[in-house]
Design brief:
By secondary structure, the protein is α/β, with parallel strands linked by helices. Helix content is about 25%, strand content about 30%. The chain has helices spanning about 35-45, 60-65, 65-75, 85-90, 90-95, 170-180, 200-205; strands at about 1-10, 15-20, 25-30, 50-55, 75-80, 110, 115-120, 125-130, 140, 145-150, 155, 160, 190, 195-200. The strands form 3 sheets. A 6-stranded mixed beta sheet has the order 1-2-3-4-5-6, with helices on one face. A hairpin with an 8-residue loop joins strand 8 and strand 9 (about 140). The two termini are about 30 Å apart. The model has no long low-confidence stretch (mean pLDDT about 95).
Amino acid sequence: MNLHVLPSGPIFTNAYLLTEPGPGEAVLVDAPGGIWHLIEPLLAKEHCRLREIWLTHGHWDHTQGGAEVVAATQAQVRAHRADQLLIENPEVMEMFMIPGDRLGPLKIDAFVEQGQRWTSLGQEVEVRHVPGHCPGNVLFYLAAAKAAFVGDAIFHSGIGRTDLPGGSLEVLERSIRDQIFTLPEDTVLYPGHGPETTVGTERETNPFVHA
Protein backbone atom coordinates (compact mmCIF):
# COMPACT_ATOMS: atom_id res chain seq x y z
CA MET A 1 0.00 0.00 0.00
CA ASN A 2 1.29 3.45 -0.93
CA LEU A 3 0.54 6.50 1.22
CA HIS A 4 0.41 10.00 -0.27
CA VAL A 5 0.20 12.95 2.13
CA LEU A 6 -1.56 15.82 0.37
CA PRO A 7 -2.20 19.11 2.22
CA SER A 8 -4.89 21.03 0.38
CA GLY A 9 -7.54 23.70 0.77
CA PRO A 10 -7.39 27.23 2.18
CA ILE A 11 -6.00 26.17 5.57
CA PHE A 12 -3.80 23.30 4.35
CA THR A 13 -5.81 20.37 5.65
CA ASN A 14 -4.10 17.02 5.25
CA ALA A 15 -5.71 14.49 2.94
CA TYR A 16 -4.26 11.01 2.69
CA LEU A 17 -4.50 8.99 -0.53
CA LEU A 18 -3.96 5.26 0.03
CA THR A 19 -3.30 3.29 -3.14
CA GLU A 20 -2.82 -0.40 -3.90
CA PRO A 21 -1.52 -0.56 -7.50
CA GLY A 22 -1.78 -4.38 -7.71
CA PRO A 23 -5.57 -4.61 -7.61
CA GLY A 24 -5.83 -0.99 -8.77
CA GLU A 25 -7.79 0.39 -5.85
CA ALA A 26 -7.50 3.52 -3.72
CA VAL A 27 -9.06 5.19 -0.68
CA LEU A 28 -9.02 8.89 0.25
CA VAL A 29 -8.97 9.91 3.91
CA ASP A 30 -10.63 13.35 4.14
CA ALA A 31 -11.37 15.63 1.21
CA PRO A 32 -10.25 19.25 1.63
CA GLY A 33 -10.89 21.84 -1.06
CA GLY A 34 -9.06 21.29 -4.35
CA ILE A 35 -8.02 17.73 -3.51
CA TRP A 36 -9.32 16.22 -6.76
CA HIS A 37 -6.71 18.09 -8.78
CA LEU A 38 -3.99 16.55 -6.59
CA ILE A 39 -5.22 12.98 -6.55
CA GLU A 40 -6.36 12.68 -10.17
CA PRO A 41 -2.81 12.44 -11.61
CA LEU A 42 -1.73 10.05 -8.83
CA LEU A 43 -4.64 7.72 -9.52
CA ALA A 44 -3.81 7.77 -13.23
CA LYS A 45 -0.10 7.17 -12.61
CA GLU A 46 -0.74 4.19 -10.34
CA HIS A 47 -3.67 2.89 -12.42
CA CYS A 48 -6.00 2.97 -9.43
CA ARG A 49 -9.69 3.61 -9.07
CA LEU A 50 -10.87 5.54 -6.01
CA ARG A 51 -13.32 3.28 -4.21
CA GLU A 52 -14.07 5.15 -0.99
CA ILE A 53 -13.67 8.40 0.95
CA TRP A 54 -13.24 8.02 4.70
CA LEU A 55 -14.13 11.21 6.55
CA THR A 56 -12.59 11.62 9.99
CA HIS A 57 -15.21 14.25 10.84
CA GLY A 58 -17.61 16.76 9.36
CA HIS A 59 -15.85 20.11 9.61
CA TRP A 60 -15.81 22.04 6.35
CA ASP A 61 -12.06 21.96 5.77
CA HIS A 62 -12.16 18.14 5.69
CA THR A 63 -15.19 17.87 3.38
CA GLN A 64 -14.97 20.85 1.02
CA GLY A 65 -13.59 18.88 -1.92
CA GLY A 66 -15.70 15.79 -1.38
CA ALA A 67 -18.55 16.57 -3.77
CA GLU A 68 -16.13 17.14 -6.64
CA VAL A 69 -14.32 13.87 -5.93
CA VAL A 70 -17.55 11.88 -5.74
CA ALA A 71 -18.81 13.42 -8.98
CA ALA A 72 -15.59 12.40 -10.74
CA THR A 73 -15.20 8.92 -9.26
CA GLN A 74 -18.53 7.77 -7.76
CA ALA A 75 -16.56 6.88 -4.61
CA GLN A 76 -18.59 5.79 -1.59
CA VAL A 77 -18.41 7.97 1.53
CA ARG A 78 -17.93 6.60 5.04
CA ALA A 79 -18.42 8.80 8.13
CA HIS A 80 -19.87 8.78 11.64
CA ARG A 81 -23.59 9.40 12.09
CA ALA A 82 -22.97 12.12 14.71
CA ASP A 83 -21.60 14.39 11.95
CA GLN A 84 -24.28 13.60 9.36
CA LEU A 85 -25.86 17.05 9.69
CA LEU A 86 -22.54 18.81 9.05
CA ILE A 87 -21.68 16.66 6.05
CA GLU A 88 -25.04 16.43 4.30
CA ASN A 89 -26.26 19.98 5.02
CA PRO A 90 -23.38 22.22 3.94
CA GLU A 91 -25.12 25.46 4.87
CA VAL A 92 -24.57 24.52 8.53
CA MET A 93 -20.81 24.71 8.03
CA GLU A 94 -20.64 27.68 5.67
CA MET A 95 -20.94 30.18 8.52
CA PHE A 96 -17.56 28.94 9.80
CA MET A 97 -15.82 29.12 6.42
CA ILE A 98 -13.68 31.76 4.80
CA PRO A 99 -16.10 34.33 3.28
CA GLY A 100 -16.82 33.52 -0.34
CA ASP A 101 -16.04 29.81 -0.05
CA ARG A 102 -18.83 27.32 -0.60
CA LEU A 103 -19.57 23.67 0.15
CA GLY A 104 -21.30 21.18 -2.10
CA PRO A 105 -23.67 18.59 -0.61
CA LEU A 106 -22.08 15.26 0.24
CA LYS A 107 -24.07 12.12 1.05
CA ILE A 108 -22.83 9.51 3.50
CA ASP A 109 -23.18 6.04 1.97
CA ALA A 110 -22.06 4.02 5.00
CA PHE A 111 -21.98 5.00 8.67
CA VAL A 112 -19.00 3.97 10.79
CA GLU A 113 -19.03 3.33 14.53
CA GLN A 114 -16.80 2.41 17.44
CA GLY A 115 -15.15 -0.99 16.98
CA GLN A 116 -16.28 -1.51 13.41
CA ARG A 117 -13.83 -3.45 11.22
CA TRP A 118 -13.52 -4.23 7.54
CA THR A 119 -10.81 -5.07 5.01
CA SER A 120 -9.67 -2.53 2.42
CA LEU A 121 -6.54 -2.40 0.24
CA GLY A 122 -5.45 -5.68 1.80
CA GLN A 123 -5.51 -4.13 5.30
CA GLU A 124 -7.84 -4.62 8.23
CA VAL A 125 -9.34 -1.27 9.20
CA GLU A 126 -10.60 -0.54 12.71
CA VAL A 127 -12.73 2.48 13.62
CA ARG A 128 -12.34 4.24 16.95
CA HIS A 129 -14.68 7.03 17.97
CA VAL A 130 -12.73 10.04 19.32
CA PRO A 131 -15.23 12.87 19.97
CA GLY A 132 -14.40 16.13 21.71
CA HIS A 133 -13.17 18.21 18.80
CA CYS A 134 -16.29 17.27 16.90
CA PRO A 135 -19.08 14.84 17.92
CA GLY A 136 -18.39 12.49 15.01
CA ASN A 137 -14.60 12.53 14.95
CA VAL A 138 -13.25 9.03 14.35
CA LEU A 139 -9.86 7.52 13.64
CA PHE A 140 -9.13 4.81 11.11
CA TYR A 141 -6.52 2.37 12.42
CA LEU A 142 -4.59 0.05 10.10
CA ALA A 143 -2.67 -2.22 12.45
CA ALA A 144 -0.56 -3.96 9.80
CA ALA A 145 0.63 -0.58 8.49
CA LYS A 146 1.10 0.78 12.03
CA ALA A 147 -0.95 3.81 10.97
CA ALA A 148 -3.89 5.73 12.42
CA PHE A 149 -5.62 8.60 10.63
CA VAL A 150 -6.91 10.70 13.50
CA GLY A 151 -8.52 13.80 12.03
CA ASP A 152 -8.29 16.78 14.37
CA ALA A 153 -8.38 14.86 17.65
CA ILE A 154 -4.62 15.15 18.23
CA PHE A 155 -1.64 16.79 16.54
CA HIS A 156 2.09 16.74 17.06
CA SER A 157 2.36 18.37 20.51
CA GLY A 158 -1.22 19.60 20.27
CA ILE A 159 -4.91 18.72 20.28
CA GLY A 160 -7.93 19.83 18.30
CA ARG A 161 -9.80 22.96 19.29
CA THR A 162 -12.86 22.45 21.46
CA ASP A 163 -14.58 25.85 21.22
CA LEU A 164 -16.71 25.01 18.16
CA PRO A 165 -20.29 23.67 18.49
CA GLY A 166 -20.20 20.12 19.81
CA GLY A 167 -16.68 20.47 21.20
CA SER A 168 -15.63 19.57 24.73
CA LEU A 169 -12.14 19.58 26.22
CA GLU A 170 -13.12 17.03 28.86
CA VAL A 171 -14.54 14.67 26.24
CA LEU A 172 -11.53 15.12 23.95
CA GLU A 173 -9.04 14.39 26.74
CA ARG A 174 -10.92 11.20 27.62
CA SER A 175 -11.13 10.18 23.97
CA ILE A 176 -7.40 10.61 23.46
CA ARG A 177 -6.53 8.60 26.56
CA ASP A 178 -9.03 5.81 25.85
CA GLN A 179 -8.84 5.53 22.06
CA ILE A 180 -5.47 6.91 20.93
CA PHE A 181 -3.05 6.35 23.81
CA THR A 182 -4.19 2.70 23.97
CA LEU A 183 -2.84 2.03 20.47
CA PRO A 184 0.67 0.50 20.20
CA GLU A 185 3.37 3.07 20.93
CA ASP A 186 4.95 2.75 17.48
CA THR A 187 1.67 3.57 15.70
CA VAL A 188 2.15 6.57 13.44
CA LEU A 189 -0.56 9.20 13.90
CA TYR A 190 -1.55 11.05 10.74
CA PRO A 191 -3.44 14.20 11.81
CA GLY A 192 -5.67 16.59 9.92
CA HIS A 193 -3.06 19.35 10.10
CA GLY A 194 0.70 19.43 10.47
CA PRO A 195 3.29 16.67 10.60
CA GLU A 196 2.85 13.06 11.61
CA THR A 197 3.76 11.87 15.10
CA THR A 198 3.54 8.63 17.09
CA VAL A 199 1.46 7.36 19.96
CA GLY A 200 4.58 6.98 22.11
CA THR A 201 5.74 10.52 21.44
CA GLU A 202 2.38 12.05 22.34
CA ARG A 203 1.94 9.87 25.42
CA GLU A 204 5.28 11.16 26.70
CA THR A 205 5.35 14.77 25.55
CA ASN A 206 1.92 16.11 24.59
CA PRO A 207 1.45 19.17 26.85
CA PHE A 208 -2.36 19.04 26.75
CA VAL A 209 -3.12 15.40 27.59
CA HIS A 210 -1.08 13.28 29.97
CA ALA A 211 -1.26 9.50 29.87
